[in-house]
């Protein structure tokens, strides 16, 4: 018997939408031509790429020529940051935050070894950025400011509009990793001071292996992948045709589903969060809840360890993720929770639920039924629990 | 996802001997919540001096719970002399093996057992002297030497997998490597003896080291450091930014700043805050 899967790990990856799949399949089966070819067989594929580019641009309020297709969010981030420093060779300072995705964080740490000065702007207990410190860190030597739009672990949303305007006023390049924000928050780049923005297909119901980078017209750029003339010379390599078409369709659907994300999905998230906090003592939400993605909640269950929770939920087919050390293969809990100052005792027991439009109320109620006894059972096993409640 | 054996999964989902033995003859507690796992082992002997009852309480991941459960099953029926021969490798084998990153869970079981036996014998818990090498997890050189020898470990990653040392900030990697090298007979090439420096040269080199090596690291956490004076081998500094108010600043000063300066400038330097 195949167990039913209750998937609440959509910040990790999402189900490919059936409409997306049927849109891309013909380009794996019949229409396998190379869009660069002179013959119609290939050329007809190029038209579909143009269409996908327009749809991707439309979701962001951008112009089609401002969209560069990449292989993933990480490539988009690397391309953006490396392009900015290559175009400003005399500048040796980068500003980012302490809670970035490894795609940005580890690249910056690597660049630090190469002599770049990196400012990692801290966050407070709610996960909110220290804007004062951020603005004070900007100098004539700053090549790029790269700040995520929304945090993947807590869902906390940064005031990107305001930050972008301030950074632009200093004539510094501003990049945002919007992998978690796209499709969940309305974005209109035509009205914002953002120079570059990264997105990833598999977070919005397209397949893995496709991403995009928005590059505002007029932004200095240097390609990351050197090769052919594809993507107007900004990224060499034959296009991942089917996946680009999939991304276009996924962007179209994301625009149409934005309202549902912010109403029904948000209500489901709130229902889950409220019910769990009510039923489980010594549990709290990581990060401020005011400005937060509609689909995400990170809940710390004190005195228990996250991997044990996940594996016990797994027995019921419930999929989520954890900020615990043990799940990542590292020994310390997530850098995001540590940067926020979440005590280790609670960080180890933090579980992230990230919903999508495919989740139902029945699924949420199932989690609410199954999880509290799991926490209770693990607390019974724990040598600290009795003294904690005594 | 970890590749746990069916036996590990079974001991995690259906742990044996959970709880605390009443009027226990031996109690052993290791780990802490901050470290991510902890185990309390209790046992009681029968009239033939064999372990009649053993129970555990564990805070930790699936393999920590499974290792604890396995340990209790393994020692019930043994004499103290037999129990004290149980190794971490045997605990892992009992479960059909553990992922290498999870070997520290079996070491935790062994440590708790040793403490419980020491408690039974009325010995003060075997004091693990030695010098703390890994500040993040509080692991001493003696503990590292022991796992290296007992499990034939050859790399820093392996040491981290077995006792967690080196799994945090990473500053102790060099020391761990030295321990491994010493034990495996590889002598690191002798530190080059630098020609004696003039005072001016020394101050310049200290300044340069602070600027290139120390400041960027402190700035990552919003801190900073200023050189005030150099008096013989005393390096006087002030800490600024978040370092100025950070409770860990003394550790930073001694274990990081002083370490770097000794490594790159002179062996005898002492860093002091003014």
Describe it.
The complex is a heterodimer of chains A (390) and B (274). Chain A is of the alpha/beta class. Chain A has two domains: 6-13 and 258-383, Aspartate Aminotransferase, domain 1 (Alpha-Beta Complex); 18-254, Aspartate Aminotransferase, domain 2 (3-Layer(aba) Sandwich), CATH 3.40.640.10. Chain A is built from 14 helices and 13 strands. Chain A has helices at 18-24, 26-29, 40-60, 73-87, 102-113, 131-137, 160-169, 241-279, 306-314, 325-328, 335-339, 344-347, 361-381, 385-389; strands at residues 6-7, 67-70, 93-97, 117-121, 142-146, 173-177, 196-200, 211-215, 283-285, 296-301, 318-319, 321-322, 350-354. Chain A has a seven-stranded mixed sheet with strand order 2-8-7-6-5-3-4, with helices on both faces. In chain A, helix 7 (160-169) links the parallel strand 5 (142-146) and strand 6. In chain A, helix 1 (18-24) packs antiparallel against helix 8 (241-279) and helix 9 packs across helix 13. Chain B is an alpha+beta fold and 274 residues long. Chain B has three domains: 6-120, Sufe protein. Chain: A, CATH 3.90.1010.10; 132-183, Orthogonal Bundle (Arc Repressor Mutant, subunit A), CATH 1.10.10; 199-273, Fe-S cluster assembly (FSCA) (GMP Synthetase, Chain A, domain 3). Chain B is built from eleven helices and eight strands. Chain B has helices at 6-13, 62-75, 80-83, 88-94, 103-120, 141-151, 156-163, 173-183, 199-220, 242-245, 249-264; strands spanning 26-32, 37-45, 51-59, 132-134, 139-140, 223-231, 234-241, 270-273. In chain B, the strands form three sheets. Chain B has a three-stranded antiparallel sheet with strand order 1-2-3. A three-stranded mixed sheet of chain B has the order 6-7-8. In chain B, a hairpin with a 4-residue loop joins strand 1 (26-32) and strand 2 (37-45). In chain B, helix 2 crosses helix 5. Mean pLDDT of chain B is 85; it is low at 187-194. The A-B interface holds A 112, 117-120, 122, 133, 303-308, 311-312, 315, 324-327, 329-333, 344-345, 348, 380-384 and B 2, 9, 12-13, 15, 18, 29, 33-34, 36-40, 57-62, 64-65, 101, 136-137, 160, 164, 167-168, 216, 219-222, 242.
